[in-house]
Structures are given as structure tokens and as C-alpha cells.
């Protein structure tokens, strides 16, 4: 099968013909139809996340059809459409798994990182970590829901119930979260790279009540702020933007170092926290909500063979919404 393969970090993906995977017990073999490109893929390709499986098929926002089932598969049948997210396997017995926090599992394995992912014609996945995709979404539209949507939503949920929500970095995750927030009657304040008028227009088009540069202050104090851009300097900026008791949530898996900042901007019970990975419950809840809220994803499609171009566009910020590889 055709695959785009990471053979070593900090090198472009290589187009290769590799052996098709076979479904083992509990696994489904999936013909990939669409795979969105996540910033985490960039962090893996760029060597910012340590020790990926090598060679590796990246990609963890997979939508495809089941074409074969391994022994014991009972959740899906041949022909079913499924989505495969970042969380690929958990142990089920560690203290985190045992307490409803499988996203923090000590032995978790992740799709497109320790497990081959969706930048290929075929992939296998453990059926327990695959999800039915609501009929409201076609394959391309659904792909960004599997990580940008899911982890974006988990990030948003950690922000509490406040009305005024800041979002730093208006990419794939933000463009979905903004729609959920609006559906829930919240008000979104979007912070982009200074001077990025196109991104600010995009944010306003998705319902943001204000959009400006990350070097600006919002017109009113925020209840919470979400940071999706991998830029540590945004942490003190966001802490300054939230009011007493407000929460700042970092939604990314990697961030540049956070500069030191005065305690005064954290004091008064502001909370700074991160979000890591997802649980299967997050996925079930979010996919149902996405359909109910009528989320419309903005996508730019690329053939599988042009995965490197998709990554380059994401890296340069030359992208509105999400990049999606189509097969
Ligand atoms: Zn575990
Ligand atoms: Zn991701």
C-alpha cells in the first residue's frame, strides 16, 4: 500500500510502498478515506516529541471504512464508517485508567506516534478506540473532529462555565471550539498572531465577538482563556487577560518554554492548567455534541502524496481551519 512514512525526525516524509497491515484479535482493518493533519504530527516530524515508533505512519484524525475484522471484533462490521483518534490503547488497570482518567494512562499508546496511523491507504486500530461518525459529516468534514475537535473540546470543558472565553491561536481546534461555544451562548475573544488580519476575519466569521493580536488586551476581562498556539509566551499574556478566579488552559502537547512572570498575574485564584490526550468518553460526548450543534469544519484537502505540503502549510500558518489528506 502507499504510505507517507517518517523514517527519522526532522526529515520530510517519504512516499513508500509498504506491506498492508493485518488486523489482529480485536482490531479492525480500515480503508482510510480522510486523515486530518494535526499540529502534533508536526511536533513528531520535527523531533519535538521524543521516541516515536520508526519508521512511522503519522496521522491520528482518521476516517475510513472497515474492510476486515480481526477475531473477536463485535463493535463494528465490514462496511462501517469509523473514526480513529489519538488515543490508541490503554492498559485498563493503572490508577489513571481505574479512575476514569485513561487519557493519563501510564502505558497509553497513541495513534500516529507509537502506533501506525492514517497517512496511508490502510490502517489497523483496536476496535475499542474507534468511533462511529455521525451521518451529518462527510469523511473530510469529520476528520478534524477526531483531534482538533475532541481535544479542543476537552480543553474548552476545563475552562469552566464562564461566558467570556479567550482563544489564543485560531487554527483547527479553535475554529471548532468557537462554534461549540457560540452554540452554548458563550462569547469568544480570538487572539491571533499580531497583524494576521485573515485569521482575525476567519474568527469573526465563526462568531467571535472580538478578534485581535495576541499582543493586545481583550476589550473586557475574560472568564477563561484557551491556548492552542505552541507559544509559551502566551501563558503570561493569557493570565493577564483573565479576571480573578479565571482559568487558563493549555491545549497543546508541546509548547516553547514559558517565560517567568510575576506571581501577581496568577494570584487571586487564577488557575493555570494543561490538557493531555482524550478519553473515549470525551470522544462519544463530543461527536454527539458536534452533530447536535451543527459544527461546520473548514478544510483544505491534499492528496496523500502531498502530505509534506500539508505539513508545511500548517507550519507556516498558511491555512484556514484544518488540512485534510484525502485518499
Ligand atoms: Zn492505564
Ligand atoms: Zn492531534
User: Fraction of residues in helices?
Assistant: 10-25%
Helix/strand structural class:
alpha/beta
User: What letter string, H or E per element, gives the SSE order?
Assistant: EEEHEEEEEEHHEHEHEEHEEHEHE
Q: How many DSSP-defined strands?
A: 17
> What is the residue-averaged pLDDT?
97
Using brief descriptors, characterize the structure shown:
single chain; 327 residues; alpha/beta; 6-stranded parallel β-sheet; 17 strands; globular; binds zinc ion
Explain how this protein is built.
With about 325 residues, the protein is of the alpha/beta class. It is about 20% helix and about 25% strand. Strand 11, helix 5 and strand 12 form a beta-alpha-beta unit. The longest helix is centred in the C-terminal third of the chain and has 13 residues. The mean pLDDT is about 95. One zinc ion binds next to loops.
